[in-house]
Fold:
Amino acid sequence: DTGVSQDPRHKITKRGQNVTFRCDPISEHNRLYWYRQTLGQGPEFLTYFQNEAQLEKSRLLSDRFSAERPKGSFSTLEIQRTEQGDSAMYLCASSQGSGYEQYFGPGTRLTVT
Amino acid sequence: AQTVTQSQPEMSVQEAETVTLSCTYDTSESNYYLFWYKQPPSRQMILVIRQEAYKQQNATENRFSVNFQKAAKSFSLKISDSQLGDTAMYFCAFMKESGSNYKLTFGKGTLLTVNP
Structure:
């Protein structure tokens, strides 16, 4: 069990650029979640996959954000035309079946300059 | 919609002493789960303890225990014999049982510092 991994761990980009983050869940986990955590706040739900299907998206996820989980394995989160307000820690978590414990990755810290 | 409130932004405790972190929540759901997660500095979030709302008995995990008051919608975390490694952000989180999306709703967190 190697845990949930995320890549990159840190990303600095200029406003207006596109960025993509990757999450590799625990191998047998069929559920995958993306959260965003800003300074001084708890994580906020962004979107959820069950296998390859994206079943729910938060209103926080503007049309500049898109997420995929091809083949129900790893997931990518892309932000187009980044804005300074997108600066945050992006967390990925996975869980298995009816299990309620979510296992979190180390996060990707995005800084938009 | 569910909300989770942690009213203590920061707390500190001396090593080996006991500390209690507070959490209240608001929901119209009758079946749900409550969690405490720990996020050490620059490290990933890990689950500390979980409570099912239908269980009257308070959950306990080694030095960590909860006081779950369903009617009052209160869910506090007690850490006994505090250790330096307990220094972290602690988040209270809610998960409703119904539906298929087991997303977590988090509070803003409490920064706990354990002093030697």
Notes: The radius of gyration of chain B is 14 Å. Chain B has no helices and twelve strands. Residues 56 and 68 of chain B are 8 Å apart (CA to CA).
